[in-house]
Glutaminase
Amino acid sequence: MLYIFHLLSHLLYSLFSLQCPRSPTTPPSYPLAVRNPYLSAWLPGDRVQHLPSASPQFWTGQELTWSVIVRVDGQAYSLMGVDEHGDVQLPAAVVQHADFTATQSTFRLSTGRLSWTLAFLSPVSPANHLRQSLPFSYLTVTVHGSANEIQIYTDIDGRWTGRAGDSDRALHYNDRDALAVYSLFLKNRDNLTYAEDSDMALWGEAVLAARSSAGSTVSFASGPVTAVRTQFVAGGRLTDTDLPWAGDEGVVGLAHDLGAVKGSRSVTFAVGYVREKAINYLGEAYTGYYRARYPSTAEAVAFFLDDYDEARSEAKRLDEQLARKATAAAGSKYAEILALSTRQAYGGIDLTIPEATRDTNDVLAFIKELSSDGNINTVDVIMPAFPIYYVLDPEYIRLLLEPVLRYLAAGRWRHPYVIHDLGAHYPNATGHDDQNAEPMPVEESGNLLILVLAHARATGDPHWAWQYTDLLRRYADYLVANGLNIPFQLSSNDAAGPLANETNLAIKAAVGLRAFGTLFGEEKYSRIASQYARSLFDHGLATDPSHSHFVLQYPHKPASWKIPYNLYPDVLLGLHTFPPDAYRMTRDFFSSSSSSSSSSSSSSAVRGPYGVPLDHRQDWAKSDWNMWLAATFGPGDAQTQFVDDLWSFMTNGKHSWPFSDRYLARGRRAGLPVLCRARPTVGGHFAILAWDGPGSLSHKEL
């Protein structure tokens, strides 16, 4: 009889879940616990219909065990992550619905007469440094209906600590003041400080926690996955014992016993990854901001669970206001793009203070260049992402640039241009005293000058920038000498290779010089910026002969083109380096369905099914640059086209990576991502919304 019950359950699950409705749409991957580069768990979109047996993944694609099992009047069901071919075979809940907002991914399921909600909340609260810095995420399980006995269980496995297949793990259980906390870590982690394996941290600890309450009691167990889950399935509680560890087959589990339920009841778990030494900044350990108030993991996770109601309320306000404002700015598709981008944009950042002093007046933010070489505080990662900071909390521009500027001001980087990054690999922000950082001289110098002006404009406070006046002038002088006659060098899009006299770099140099001149009141630099702009546009140095578009490279490249996304900060910051005709020309060219004679091949299309490629040589596009260009155009058909293109890529069902910012816009494999996933550069998607003004979704409104 039990076998028949299981079979019928599986058939019903297959029938209904294949048609599971999604709202607002189906993303390539749902963010589950996305808080920093090492707490980044996702559920591929093509696994949702199989949620009861589906495993989440780390952002790079490594499988993670994270299960949810419920027990109703003695009968257990799988809601998430129980392999249907494993030793513990359970009837699967039926997946009814899946949706996501900027801060939360939610899945609704049913088991007979009861329905269930799994809500994965990763707070986005940049102005609240305490809340934003906590390296935990919420899982709330809600039951709707009535039953005599309800129990809810979740577990995670050793792969959350990195090094799959490594059985050399240890765990610690702490039960105090009704708080149950499991910490799971590698035994030799003290020898692995600041070390990674496949982008996973090796020196911290994975955390699973829950709190007992008047309406529920929490039990715990660890050991082989089959043994631990069998305890729960058989009796509805765990045995409060730790069995011998079992390598990748080992789990730590917690279970809530709710007793009788009538109506709706919820329980909340916390999952996280903690590093006491979070960042190595020039040889000094920096730790999470939260440790100034909560120095131990138990204290921090206790506060995190206690903060749930306020964090959820703030998240709901952010979700609603972002959806409303984004829809008003560029339509419902744009709102969906921003909803999927938000957690990812902040999920590449650690917010820190010095470990030795815990001084909250010395806050620094560090960002990882995910999916490429793992550099830390890459200036041309901060640059494309900056629209989300501009909208949500402009102070993050300063927090991310300050570590770089301190290093540059110390004179340890001796080149006359801005450094590319602050360290070859996260979390080691140790600089490049060997002078061998990836060289992007005009790119990074222009970026820095533009970003410091953006911060001053957005906050109304130029004093931070002013303390670096002499340093910044040095980089402005580099652009004076090299911004129009540009030596052979890379731009931000290094995969496209280096060029001399690349038009888009020259545009950046001109805008950067105008930014410096405007901020510091030095007319000389603004005048040179205008001269550059006149040469590039008015005199046609960087346009085709018919003055229909900017070319990729000048002079003598009339058949080429590239997205001139560096026009965006000129417009956003009201610098007027280039005249309105330059923007109209660009809008008309890229809103056309093809470039006809302007392309490198006279019949080649500029726009593909999923947007406009980076330049005439490529099939791949960058989502951030497409949105920058769309924002440059302002409201209208051209902007709508770019938004529709990106939304089409996001929802095409051809891939299951966390939102990729680099993908094939045209060609035989159009619609597939290329190399990049989970990058914080999707903050650039906020470029259109930035027109609402700096801080337009700040904590003051929430």
Q: What stands out?
A: Residues 308-330 form the longest helix (23 residues).
